[in-house]
């Protein structure tokens, strides 16, 4: 950047040459600051925007930590039981020629398959992950994934709230700095990075070019609820759209917090039940034949 500026580029032009470092709203806002001469206010708003965006991302990431830990723990314990404990118990059953119930035979079969074909499982697992990532990075795959996430109970609601918060926050900041509405929407479409919402924003841009207002251009949106469109319309009537957008962002930041707490509280008992059923089934497959074997030995 220093070399770009030394060669005569403005700060905003230098930022545009480094899109991997500066999101698209940065050079646009700085360009406005260059025209008005008010760098301080522009950079202060940029700092606030980046802080809010980072806080939002951190909240979502923290919400994913608990399910990840519980899921990983369940997988680890299950693999340990199937590859270490079950083979040892199986030898005992073979020594006494014990009659095994169906559930025990199934668990032993899974254990034998896991031990004998671990390389195949790892290969298929790794291949599946790589294939999923590749597909998700294609336009069709990204759209299907974004659409699928929106349909997941609780998680879909959280995803919508995060999108609305980011949308409102960025539009509020950009419009406050006198960035034109069309330019603002083009920038925000790139920021939200969501196939479904991105298409809605592009369609809204075309409608606004034809003379529609911002609120009506998003009619029928699957992301923006009527309450949001109503507040935007109220902002248009009072000529206070930027302020209304910032208020919406604050409201949805609070709703994101609530949604994260709800999701965590809902997933905690669900994860415990799934983990309990999985491990409980394996333990039951051991204890039932062990009890039967003990009874047989006592009767000898």
Automatic annotation (TrEMBL):
InterPro entries: GspF/PilC, T2SS_GspF/T4SS_PilC_CS, T2SS_GspF_dom, T2SS_GspF_sf. This is General secretion pathway protein F. Belongs to the GSP F family. It comes from Leptospira interrogans str. 2006001854. The chain crosses the membrane at residues 62-86, 106-135, 270-291. Keywords: Cell membrane, Membrane, Transmembrane, Transmembrane helix, Transport. One of its GO terms (cellular component) is plasma membrane. Residues 3-87, 167-289 form the Type II secretion system protein GspF domain. GO terms for biological process: protein secretion. Component of the type II secretion system inner membrane complex required for the energy-dependent secretion of extracellular factors such as proteases and toxins from the periplasm. The keyword Chaperone does not apply. It is found in: Cell membrane. It is a multi-pass membrane protein.
